[in-house]
Structures are given as C-alpha cells and as structure tokens.
C-alpha cells in the first residue's frame, strides 16, 4: 500500500515539474504573423477598411500598424475550448479600453473578430447592430 502511495506522489511531483503546454496553442498559433484588415462592420453597417492597416500577432501580443507606424500594442488571450471561441484584447497603452469578443476562422483563411469595447458585453454571435458597441474585423493573411 505504501508503494502505491509513494508511486502516486512521485508521479504527481514528476508531472508537476514538466513544462505546461502553452494555453490555447492551436488558435493562437494560427493567428501568428501579419494580417491585413480587409473589411470592417460597425453598428450593422460595412465601413471602409483603413488603408495599409495591419495587425501582427507575435506570441500573445498583437501590434496594430498603419503603414510602418505602430498604432497600438495589446496582450491577446484566446479561449478556443468554448463555442463561440473567445478573444480578449488588452491594450498596453494606459487608459485604452479592453476589448472582449469572439472569433472564427473561415475556410478561405479569413480571421473574423467581433469585439465590444469598454463595459459592453461580449458578443454572442458575429454580428453588429445599432448601439451594441461591437465591431467586426475581417482579417486576411498579409502577402509577403
């Protein structure tokens, strides 16, 4: 009996010493690299995407750029174990508001993020309506 307990404790300690797998490695890995904003929707209306605006994901950091100018740097957390998949975007700039949202990958490689800013609730589906505070970004992989 004592051997079983010792073996269980040793296994527990050994497993505890192993490096943890990166959280949400699947989707955060798919997001890595540079993306171009191809379309935006706000309040249910399609808006013109800002020209030359790109978002580069590196690890759990997203860097927004217009041309060569860095606009914003944010921490990104994803939860790909729930449906719909969730994303939290926390700006590193003091005073900037956190965005909480959902995302999906479309078959043709498009990353779609629907997020609300500030105190607005996390969207439950990828859509925007008048006054909901949500924005939808359609991102395409940048061509190198």
Description:
- The protein has helices at 2-17, 25-31, and strands spanning 33-42, 45-47, 53-58, 61-66, 69-79, 85-91, 99-105, 111-117, 134-141.
- The protein has a single domain, classed as Lipocalin (Beta Barrel), CATH 2.40.128.280.
- Strand 1 and strand 2 form a beta hairpin.
- The protein has 144 residues and is an alpha+beta fold.
- The protein has two helices and nine strands, in the order ααβββββββββ.
Order of helices and strands: HHEEEEEEEEE
Instruction: Give the helix level as a range of percent.
Output: 10-25%
Helical element count?
2
Low-confidence stretches: 1-24
Main sheet: strands, sense, barrel: 8 strands, antiparallel, barrel
**How many beta-strand runs?**
9
Which class of secondary structure composition applies to the elements? alpha+beta
Radius of gyration: 19 Å
Strand content: over 45%
Throw out a few tags for this protein.
2 helices; eight-stranded antiparallel beta barrel; 9 strands; alpha+beta; disordered N terminus; 144 residues; Lipocalin
Quick recap:
The protein is an alpha+beta fold.
Q: What topology emerges from the helices and strands here?
A:
Elements: H1 2-17, H2 25-31, E1 33-42, E2 45-47, E3 53-58, E4 61-66, E5 69-79, E6 85-91, E7 99-105, E8 111-117, E9 134-141
Antiparallel strand pairs: 1-2, 1-3, 1-9, 3-4, 4-5, 5-6, 6-7, 7-8, 8-9
